[in-house]
Amino acid sequence: MEITKLSTKGQVVIPEKLRDDIEVGEAFIVSKKGDLLVLKKVKNLTKEEIKELEELQKIWKEIDEGKSKTFTEKEFLKDMETW
Description:
Structural class: alpha+beta
Number of helices: 2
Shape: elongated
Strand content: 5-15%
């Protein structure tokens, strides 16, 4: 068992003794139940899937920071036509 802590940026360091088979940039699924946090390595993601996950993370950050737009259904469908 090792002890780590959360940084002000929401980052958690995986102690060196526990990351001998983890590569820099490796993806994880993170789940939480009560006080238990679990990291599970995600294997065989394509570069495109990693890029999509990074983009999704940026989108959620913008939503959390209140930088997203709110649309009515009609406005959304009209905006979607430009995609």
